[in-house]
Amino acid sequence: MIKKGKKLYEGKAKIIYATSDKNLVIQYFKDDATAFNNQKKSTIEGKGVLNNRISEHILSNLSQIGIKNHLVKRLNMREQIIKLVEIIPIEFIVRNVASGSITKRLGIEDGTVLKEPLLEYCLKDDALGDPLIAEEHIYAFDWANKKEIEKVKKMILRINDFMIGMFRGIGIKLIDFKLEFGRIKINGKTEVILADEISPDTCRLWDSITDKKLDKDRFRKDLGDLIPAYTEVAKRLGILHEQSNVTAVNVTKLSSVKKKNK
Ligand code: 5GP
Questions:
Q1: Which residue's alpha carbon is nearest to atom 23 within ligand 1?
Q2: Which of 62, 131, 185, 198 has its Cα between 20 and 30 A from that of 177?
Q3: Atom 18 (ligand 1): residue with closest C-alpha?
Q4: Which pTM does this prediction carry?
């Protein structure tokens, strides 16, 4: 049995704990939401539970198509055991449709379908606001080597294809998403594997018919109803039965609060 140890790191949406196995850590999903480089903050009850389930589902599916990743298993509603990796300090942003920062940066209309998927690199540095960088910066500052980036690019293309199809099948457009990768020693050899989370916190997901936002933009843009939107994603992915108590309670609570306010 793996025992939970001390807190190693606390990020904006997750906490990492040591375990009795030096190669494994526990990833805890918080309810905290932040946006615009930490300038906007809130707590949204139930968000962590939904992201834990959704990320587990997506990473296990990716594992089945051969994308190695850090997930070992989900432990409970908010925690999963993951392999300890050395995170590459780059956010890999994959875009299929222009939305968010690219529309402002390049004056592109929101919702413009890109001719081909676009991969952008941002330096993972909150103090600098995760600035956009070129691939050359990665090599110049030795954040990763060419072999690693070539491998990551291949994985990203497959991940994007798989996720576009998975979401299309449940009536959702995958607009864009953020991935992180980490280094791990496997049989004495250093390999790069997928890490972090994939959830409505890290993806833009729009309903295929109505373009309704089912992701963190509901928080960023003050659209409200974040929990019902994340719940909708989880339900369409077919993963809500086991957790339905918690999420149903939260959704019921939220909707009863709303009704009272009417
Ligand atoms: P944008 O560059 O438009 O702000 O974000 C592009 C995509 O990457 C969006 O799906 C967004 O959720 C995700 N993303 C970019 N940076 C971060 C980040 O620091 N945290 C999270 N959770 N997602 C991010």
A1: 202
A2: 185
A3: 202
A4: 0.92
